[in-house]
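Job type: complex structure
Entries:
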Amino acid sequence: MRILITAGPTREYVDDVRFLSNASSGRMGYALAEAAIAAGHEVILVTGPVDLDVPDGAKVSAIETTDELRMSCLELFPSCDGIIATAAVCDYRPRERVHGKMTKTGQPIVLELVETSDVLAELGAQKGHRWVVGFALESQDPRNNAMRKLRMKQCDCIVLNDTSAISSLENRVEILSPDAETQAEFTGLKTDVAAQLITFIEQRIAR
Amino acid sequence: MRILITAGPTREYVDDVRFLSNASSGRMGYALAEAAIAAGHEVILVTGPVDLDVPDGAKVSAIETTDELRMSCLELFPSCDGIIATAAVCDYRPRERVHGKMTKTGQPIVLELVETSDVLAELGAQKGHRWVVGFALESQDPRNNAMRKLRMKQCDCIVLNDTSAISSLENRVEILSPDAETQAEFTGLKTDVAAQLITFIEQRIAR
């Protein structure tokens, strides 16, 4: 198969220097890219800024903002069989980006944040015969929030992990089906979890 | 000498996952730590989250927020001969930090940002016989902004670099004295600039 994998954080700039982001290490996505290549698949990795070596054999598209992620995925998804979306996108961006670097004035500033576009929902809506595997990282009411995401993004399954997964070498995931069944649970190093997920996708998701 | 060096970005959390930060790599500060150790000095490195190996022989205090940087510096500065402050602190933090992870609602959100405390100004005000070397990264009116910082922070000199230095392996710096004279200019790899800066501090700043 030809698999599109998104990984890492995105950044949304307040000015030329400061941005909103998160501590996503990209490890889960990079581990999935390696596992997919090891299993004989072709991988295109759309990656935010992380400090990881690109897996041998992966094609890479480096992005910074959610909008760049969107453009890259819209271009690449049509030629792929499916997408595994592990990127921890910034859900919000400043409405305005200040040019240059804001200088302190001693006063508070008010930043209006608007939601970034929901890239996976957009891909899900046009998936056709392609499969879509989403990731959800939730701190409150995780199953319900994950299922809401699965439906909004038209995922074939969603991988639920909790906030302790960020920046960690390990992960514990639960895979939920569109009818809210637990299809599998994997625990361990992200590299091990990745290999099991790729096998799961081959056997249960890609048809 | 015993030198306190701050390096890297700080992070200011909006909720448990999202934060404001910048792309500071920490390279300038880590290169200065290495150069200082190579020159026979003792180094305490107060560092934000970066992907660099700690220089052999440096003592390290790992921090995330500007407030943690402040606590660490207030504790360590009194036992040092001087400070080189390269950390790219977040000048702003959200007034409130949301517990858990905010869930998207479809609506914009308004984030009130307040200035973080000026750690170097606080250290400068209590420096006594110690020396203070500041860094300024300015996009507009760089010399005047750097001189304003030098005075506010009671620096013995300030190292002016421009925004292209962020995340780069190279740097081009100008050292300004309290009477706004250019005392030196160094250009090249951050490792080379660091060695020259340490020599400059030994000869012109540390008395």
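Summary: Helices of chain B lie at 27-38, 66-76, 119-125, 142-152, 190-205. The domain at 2-102+109-205 of chain B is CATH 3.40.50.10300 (Rossmann fold).
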